[in-house]
Amino acid sequence: MECVRKAGWNSPHRTPLSRRLAAEALGTGTLVVTVVGSGIMGETLTKDVALALLCNTLPTGAILVVLITALGSISGAHFNPAVTLVFTGKRKLPVNEAASYVIAQIAGGIAGTMAAHLMFGLPLLDFSTKVRTGGPQWFAEAVAAFGLVATILAGIRFQRTAIPWLVGLYITAAYWFTASTSWRTLMGAQA
Question: Which of 84, 111, 80 is nearest to 99 (CA)?
Answer without folding.
Answer: 84
